Amino acid sequence: MLTPLAATGVDWSEVHAVRLLGIALAVLFLLWAIRRMFGGK
Fold first, then answer.
1. Residues 1-41: pLDDT tens digits?
2. Going by C-beta distance under 8 Å and a sequence separation of 6 or more, which residues neighbour residue 15?
3. Which residue spans traverse the membrane (predicted)?
4. pLDDT of residue 4
């Protein structure tokens, strides 16, 4: 299972941090969308 990421010597802690940041932003966006859907501000 060779991936391009493995071949470039990526810092996996960095990748994990970026992934967590993306998940957090997605959760915030979902909460905002749900609140708007129910007429919140």
1. 555 555 567 677 888 899 999 999 999 999 999 999 998 65
2. 5
3. 16-34
4. 58
Q: Which residue has the tokens 């493995």?
A: 6
Residue of 24, 30, 23 whose CA lies nearest to 38: 30
29, containing H or E segment: helix 12-37
CB 22 within 8 A of CB 14: no
Query: ∠8-13-17 over CA atoms, to 5°?
Result: 115
Q: What is the pTM of this model?
A: 0.58
Residues in the chain: 41
